[in-house]
Specification:
The structure is a homodimer of 334-residue chains. The first copy, chain A, is an alpha/beta fold. Chain A has 2 domains: 9-113 and 299-319, 3-Layer(aba) Sandwich (Rossmann fold), CATH 3.40.50.720; 115-291, NAD(P)-binding Rossmann-like Domain (Rossmann fold, 3-Layer(aba) Sandwich). Helix content of chain A is 30%, strand content 16%. Chain A is built from 10 helices and 12 strands. Chain A has helices at 26-36, 51-58, 68-74, 115-130, 133-141, 165-176, 203-206, 229-233, 252-261, 303-319, and strands at 9-14, 43-48, 63-66, 84-87, 106-108, 157-161, 180-185, 196-199, 212-215, 240-243, 266-269, 289-291. A 7-stranded parallel β-sheet of chain A has the order 8-7-6-9-10-11-12, with helices on one face. In chain A, helix 1 (26-36) packs across helix 10 (303-319). The radius of gyration of chain A is 22 Å and the shape is elongated. The two termini of chain A are 35 Å apart. Residues 1-6 of chain A have low confidence and may be disordered. At the A-B interface, helix 4 and helix 5 of A face helix 4 and helix 5 of B.
Chain lengths: 334, 334
């Protein structure tokens, strides 16, 4: 590989060793460069999945694209030219408080890569709650024919907590089906798919009117354990819960208790505490629950192309001296 | 009850004895009359759920609204003034060849009452197939954490067989999510939600390109057993099957064999042979299958209001001497 000219940037991509589903390939990089037009010029790229490749690259890399778990395992590391690091996850909670990569190195997430897939999964999960699929699969497990007639979702209310990449897309799809969408976010800013948006402090005021509660917020110090037993108790009896955020945003044992007691109608969960769910864990025995093993948002066909397009969008902003749309605010945690 | 004047019509509503979820009430009738405006004038109504009430009403009723199973159990019956009978089901396959109510009495179905609910259930089932929920619930049943990453449905192909009330609404919702929808119907007439529509004879030509096959056709002599083992073998390995039609349209044992062998990725079924599924039936043990106990299309909040609105729509047409939109063609069977 030729030494980059002084005007060029060295981009390093570190794949996890043994990654078979989602490694970023040279062909994917070349295609993204072609899509990026002018932004793809004056770049040198290296791709590795081993320790030696990483160390060699860090001696000269300006920009790094890698997995959250790789950042966690490999940093702090000497990287004298490193300007910013893009993680391929939407939520970087596992890296907080981010001190393995101190400033001035900047840290970017991958928000935007998951919207289409997560939006589809989310509206599916909402429809599954409304159609009582968690209860029907519990009956099926026990060989019981148990007809339950349910109302249409059109006109019913879904409360979506977190209106980023994932939650915003779920809100939009629920709205397409004629649902009334109430959003909840840290600042309560308006959102085009939501009839209204409340701040986190006012979440309790909208829960009694919710038919479905969707959790799609980042895991931060502020959202850790945010959905307490008391919060869940504000939901009506027929309501259900969807979690596409992180297991730690909710009191999981309270949720299991309430599903067992019939105090909530059902849950469709993609995230858990811990993951993978250990053998014999109570979640495997909890009725009225559908378990999705953290697969809601990652489309193997489109994930890397979208990740690289997001990289180039941020590169353009950075070169122009503008704010990078995916830069993580280390204080708020996302 | 006063005798109806010569210009008025006597409408009788016969609810099944003991029906608790869906009996048509006097209040629902009165509200429908109010919505119907002029069409609700000059009508006398009687409502019963017993033998005596039925026999008394049949001596003078002009029009009858009742359940398919009631028609099957109570006719032939003397009913000298009866002009037409509206059944509250969309599919009247259980009454074919309809000889218990011979012409000139006309027979109407309830197509139109199920569109919203069935459309929501159908797009949910399509998303469940695409997200491999049938396989994930099988893994959950066995306490196995088995991540399977799946592609977005946007741009993928769903083949919808039957484009009536149910299939048309499912096609429209799939189209909203960016899916490519290919329809299939007896005559192959174009449909606004479908990229193209093939006739039943050409269904085999589109199955190899299907990601999901949705069955929503009426059960008739022509569709009985239409989805054979050979037809299912034309689907790609990753495809799945949704059935909201009737159990008898498909070779159910072939489907179970293929789900067990991993020859299809999954199925979400609302209808079966027989119903209810007996204890110990192989369906309860079939992997990669989600069982919904024939509850996809009946919304207890809206079913009767929509049924009565459809009744009045047909009444207006009949009084004007026009074709009634819900009249069953006894020869084709729907």
């Amino acid at each position: 590989m030729p030494d980059p000219s002084p005007a060029s940037l060295h981009v390093h991509i570190q794949n996890p060793a043994g990654e078979t589903l989602f490694p970023i390939t040279r062909a994917q990089w070349d295609q993204a460069v072609a899509r990026a037009g002018a932004a793809g010029q004056a770049l040198t790229v290296s791709i590795a999945d081993d320790d030696a490749g990483f160390s060699t690259a860090m001696a000269r890399a300006d920009l790094l694209i890698t997995w959250t778990k790789e950042i966690k395992a490999r940093f702090p590391h000497t990287a004298p030219r490193l300007k910013w690091v893009m993680a391929t996850s939407a939520g970087l909670d596992r890296l907080a408080p981010f001190d393995m990569i101190p400033p001035p190195v900047r840290l970017l997430n991958n928000s935007g890569a998951h919207a289409v897939k997560a939006g589809e999964w989310g509206v599916m999960a909402v429809l599954m709650i409304a159609n009582r699929i968690p209860t029907l699969t519990t009956a099926q497990r026990e060989g019981r024919w148990q007809p339950i007639f349910t109302r249409s979702v059109a006109g019913r209310t879904v409360v979506v907590v977190g209106l980023g990449d994932l939650g915003g897309s779920i809100a939009a799809n629920c709205s397409l089906l004629g649902m009334r969408v109430i959003g909840c976010s840290a600042r309560g800013a308006p959102h085009p798919a939501c009839e209204r948006v409340v701040t986190s402090e006012n979440l309790d005021t909208v829960l009694p009117g919710a038919d479905v509660l969707v959790l799609a917020m980042p895991l931060t110090a502020a959202t850790q354990g945010m959905i307490t037993r008391g919060m869940l108790s504000l939901l009506p009896l027929h309501a259900g819960v969807v979690n596409i955020a992180r297991g730690a945003v909710i009191d999981q044992d309270a949720l299991c208790d309430m599903l067992e007691a019939g105090r909530l109608s059902g849950a469709v969960l993609d995230v858990f505490t811990p993951e993978p769910i250990p053998m014999g864990h109570r979640l495997w025995r909890t009725p009225n629950l559908v378990i999705s093993p953290h697969v809601s948002s990652d489309d193997p066909d489109t994930y890397n192309p979208r990740t690289l397009d997001i990289f180039f969008r941020n590169l353009v902003a950075w070169r122009a001296g503008e704010a990078m749309p995916n830069e993580v605010d280390r204080t708020r945690g996302y």
